Amino acid sequence: MRFVHEFLEENARRTPSKTAIVAGEMRASFAEIEVAANRLAHALSAEGVSPGDRVAVCLENSIETVVAIFGILKAGAVFSVINPSVKADKLARIIRDAGAAALIIAHDAAHRRLVAEMLPISAPLVVWVTGLPDTAPPAGTRFRAWDELLRGGKAHAPERTIDESDLGTLIYTSGTTGQPKGVMAAHRDMVFAATAIAASLENTADDVIFSALPLAFTYGLYQLMTAMRVGATLVLEKNFVFPAKALQIMARERITGFPGVPTMYALLLGISDLAHYDLSSVRYLTNAAARLPAHHIRQLRAAFPQARIYSMYGQTECKRTSVLPPAELDRRPASVGLPLPGTRVLIVNDEGQPLPPGAVGELVVGGPHLMRGYWGKPEETANTLRPDPVDGALLLYSGDLFWMDEDGFLYFVSRKDDIIKSRGEKVSPTEVENVLYGLKGVRDAAAVGVLDELLGEAIKVVIVREEQSALTERDVRAYCAQHLEEFMRPKFIEFVQELPKSDNGKLIRRNLRECAA
């Protein structure tokens, strides 16, 4: 297959009535998703969305989100799923940066307020799922209702207007400057990655995959892509806040695959009556974002004795890089595995020279799954994607420190830069700090990641108060809850007299990490 939306089209032809997506009490077959996506594609085109245009999708895990993704692709456009807990200023920055032609967003009170805070919005088209707000759109913007668009669209697939090398998605991730940056992925990249991941996990059409990972997150998005690639059923949950509810769904739907992160597994294993749920259908568990602690692996094996556990590593810039075969888990519990078939990895020093087994250096990745670059950021792209001096093929310099054993298995050491990787999400310390500076009573602030068994890295903020300020930890937490997405909020808060800085005034972050709360 050459295009991502061909996954859906093939399944709709082969097994039209089979359930493709389950979300809450809602179910949709492959044929239903296909027709709805076709209708949306035609409607978007009629509203002026052209091939190559970017369309932002700010929705929870739902059938509508899946329809939006494939409808945008079928229109020849580029989808960008954004976490629905995003704050107004960040969403506005993303829409401006992408030059989005349209925004598809939930029609609930929280998101109506979100759009109101953003006005005037730079996207010329806003599609509300579902219904329309009472207020009129500002000049230069059109409001449309999702149901109305789908009723007006044609049911057949639009003609192809793009090439496999054209962009399919922009995934926004935090940058070192604190400004989100769009990671560009073409259809060809996504098709390769979904195919390779499905092969590594031995996914088939018989699988039923449960995912509470947000579709705005690469790990979550590729649950959808791999399920569509093989014709499996995907069961979407909005979050994992209530693990007992998730377990009920897993038992009811006879789940075969469960992708998680350490925080989810910790919640799962904390349920005292886990044995009460019939989870005998689960054949595999996957982990990414942060390494699973050894005792969690032991507990998961006891809870799911019939299931295989796959440890993995990846980045937004290269989707998935490595998978540890379950048979190697006992011998190499700290490893994140071997490179995906069709890819290559190197461990290099600061001069870009390959290092021998056992030596720690930067992980460099090559293969068809690499991003095409950062949207509108040629300098950052050139720094991250560099040509191989031997054959000229582009290589991704990951910014992560690794070592490799004699057999080629990879071991993560740490981040090379200051980006915090918490709960599987990249968090820019600058972005957190910028928010803290808006809190009255904060004179100076710094955010760092400190090692955490469950989160991978927990966010710690260190604050210097203004003189006479009575600012408290409770005040900081309340402010962060109002202005930061949940995964960006600090676990630790510390007040100090001064931040450690060098002679030229540069913050010395390592000194803050060494004093973990």
Strand content: 25-35%
Q: Which strand order spans the largest sheet, edge to edge or round the barrel?
A: 4-3-5-6-7
Overall pLDDT metric: 92
Overall structural class, as computed from helix and strand content, comes to: alpha/beta
Number of strands: 27
Summarize the amount of helix as a percent range: 25-40%
Question: How widely separated are the two ends?
Answer: 51 Å
Q: Over the alpha carbons, how many angstroms does the gyration radius reach?
A: 23 Å
Low-confidence stretches: none
Overall morphology: globular
Largest sheet: 5 strands, parallel
Figure out the total of helices.
15
Briefly summarize what is shown.
The protein has 517 residues and is α/β, with parallel strands linked by helices. Helices cover 30% and strands 26% of the residues.
Tell me the layout of helices and strands:
Blueprint: H1 5-14, E1 19-23, E2 26-29, H2 30-46, E3 54-58, H3 63-74, E4 78-81, H4 88-98, E5 102-106, H5 109-118, E6 125-129, E7 142-145, H6 146-152, E8 167-173, E9 181-186, H7 187-201, E10 208-211, H8 218-230, E11 233-236, H9 243-253, E12 257-260, H10 262-269, E13 284-287, H11 294-303, E14 308-313, E15 322-324, E16 338-339, E17 344-348, E18 361-366, E19 373-374, H12 378-384, E20 385-387, E21 394-404, E22 410-415, E23 420-422, E24 425-427, H13 429-436, E25 442-452, E26 456-465, H14 473-483, E27 492-496, H15 509-513
Parallel strand pairs: 1-11, 3-4, 3-5, 5-6, 6-7, 10-11, 12-13, 13-14, 26-27
Antiparallel strand pairs: 1-2, 8-9, 9-19, 14-15, 15-16, 17-18, 18-21, 20-21, 21-22, 23-24, 25-26
Helix pairs in contact: 1-2, 2-3, 2-6, 4-5, 7-8, 10-11
